[in-house]
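Would you mind writing out a protein's amino acid sequence and the numbers that encode its backbone to help me picture the idea?
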Amino acid sequence: MTALGVVFRPQLPPERLRDVACAADAAGLEELWLWEDCFLESGIAAMAAGLAWTQRLRVGVGLLPVPFRNAALTSMEAATLHRLFPGRAKLAVGHGVQDWMAQVGARVESPMTLLTEHLSAMRALLRGERVTTQGRYVRLDGVALDWPPQAGAAVYVGATGPRTLRLAGKAADGTILTSGRTPGEVRRARELVEEGRAEAGRTDPHEVVAYFNAATGPGAAARIEAELESSGDAGKSEAGVAGDAQAVAEAVRRIADAGADTVILQPTADEPDIEGFVRFVAEEVRPLIA
C-alpha cells in the first residue's frame, strides 16, 4: 500500500511545527517531512522536536546537504534519533544547492564525489562498522559509533539528475524525488534508480519517496498554478493537483503507479491552513487510497 504524508515547509516559522506535527499524529497521518533549505530551519533539530511531540508519526528530513557536515557527526545524529525513536526517523542526504554551498564557503569541486564518499561512510557507521577511509573529501581513522542503531537505519538520497538517481540506486537505501515531476518523470526517475541498483547487483528493498504539489479549498487551482510557475514548472499540469479529496487521491495513485512507494503531498507556500491541510490528507484522501 502506498504510504502518504505531508511536507512541513520551512517557510513556516519553527514554532508552528508543534501544532502541525500533533495534528498529523492525531489525524493518523503516516509521515511528515521537513526540509533543510538555506537559511531557514535545521533539519535535525526540527526532526527531533517533531518526533518528541508525537507518538506514532514518522518524521523525515529531505534533505541534509553533506557539504555542511562531517560524515561521522551526521552518523552520530542519525544513530541517536534512530535509537530514541525506533522506526520513526527517516533521513536523506544530498549534495545541496551549489549556490548556497558557495555562500557558506562549503562548495566543493566534485559534489558527486563528496556525496558518494559521505554516503558510503555513513551507511557503514550506521551498520556498526569501524571505518577507516582516506577519500578525496571524507577522511576517517578508525571511527566507530558507540551507540549505533539497534535495528536497520536506512539512508536516503535526494536526487534530481540522472547521475544522482543512479547513485541513489547503487549506494543508498531509498530515494527522495523533489516536487515538480509529472508521472512520466517519476517513472523515468525510478528507471534510473533501478539502473543503479542493477549495476551494483542489489536486490534489497529501495523506497522511492516522491513529493507532489497539492492544494484544496478556495483558490486551490490558482495557488497550484502560481507554485508551479515559481518553481520553474509552469505548464506542467500533471506536476500538481488542485481539488477535492477524490482529485487528490487520483493524482496520488498516478504518482504511485509511476513508481513511487511513498507520496508526500507538498502544500503551496501560501497554504492558509496547514493544520487543516494535514487533516484533509489524513482523513479524506488517505481512505480513498487504501
Observations:
- Residues 3-289 form a domain with the TIM Barrel fold (CATH 3.20.20.30).
- The chain is about 45% helix and 20% strand.
- The chain has a mean pLDDT of 97.
